[in-house]
Amino acid sequence: MTNRAIAAFAHPDDETFSVGGTLARAISLGWQVTAICATRGEVGEIAPGTNATPETLGNVREQELRAACAALGVTDVRFLGYRDSGMDGTPENKDRRAYVNASADLVIDKLAGLFRELPPAVVFTFDESGIYGHPDHKAIHRHVTAAFDRAAAPGARLLYTAIPKSVAKMIGEQLRAAGVRGGPPGDFGVPDEEVDIRADVSAFAEPKRKAVAAHATQVQEWQAHLSNEQRTKMLTTEYFHVARGSKPRDDDPLA
Ligand SMILES: [Zn+2]
């Protein structure tokens, strides 16, 4: 069986921050890698200095995702065609095209079809908290998990991204100390004991940094207030919970 990894996330940039270094590593090891994105991130933030407008953001972010994936070596990029649902409680939730309003059966069918067409050895997606609770993150978690259980081959592995609470706490403390408003909510991440893999992807920090830079509309001001050590850590360490399949040796998500 060809070694294949599928990274299935909700918005352009989720893949880079969650598993970018691991995807670049998979490519370097000769794996086939497919990135699946449920939406084009139409209602995300727009960083100052970029030319995107609310009307063009979806197109811009589609190109950003393709450029970020290219930086990681990933050329197979697929969109599921839904619209960004926005944060909980925003009017965008009500848009009939919003991902949260899609039929779960239909999305699961689409994903299961892709898992049969491109049989993965490893699938990556969000944990049930969706890192910080974005409704699209929680939806892709549910849909990917159901599709995996229906269509993945025996022995395939399902890995959830899992930022340890201790790391989340450190980020929160640094931002508060710097007087930053906004940024990630105070209580995110998963309990440290549920983190099964701490993957060292420092050999792929440079492609990951380029992929982060490719998501220019999503550069967040708060990240500049993190310590150098913390920013380096975000480029060099990726965290996973093993939801299905064997736990790997040597903290290697591709083992
Ligand atoms: Zn997202």
What is the element string, with H for helices and E for strands?
Answer: EHEHEHEHHEHEHHE
Mind summarizing the main beta sheet?
A: 7 strands, mixed
Under CATH, the topology can be stated as Rossmann fold
Tally the structural domains.
Answer: 1
Residue share in helix:
25-40%
What's the gist of this structure?
By secondary structure, this protein is α/β, with parallel strands linked by helices.
Textual characterization of the structure:
There is one protein chain. The chain is an alpha/beta fold. The protein has one domain (4-163, 195-221): Rossmann fold, CATH 3.40.50.10320. 38% of the residues lie in helices and 17% in strands. The chain is built from eight helices and seven strands, in the order E-H-E-H-E-H-E-H-H-E-H-E-H-H-E. It has helices at residues 14-28, 57-72, 104-117, 130-133, 135-151, 165-177, 205-214, 228-236; strands at residues 4-9, 32-39, 76-82, 122-126, 157-161, 197-200, 237-244. Strands 3-2-1-4-5-7-6 form a seven-stranded mixed beta sheet, with helices on both faces. Helix 1 runs parallel beside helix 2, helix 2 runs antiparallel to helix 7 and helix 3 (104-117) packs across helix 5. It is globular, with a radius of gyration of 17 Å. The mean pLDDT is 94. Zinc ion binds next to loops.
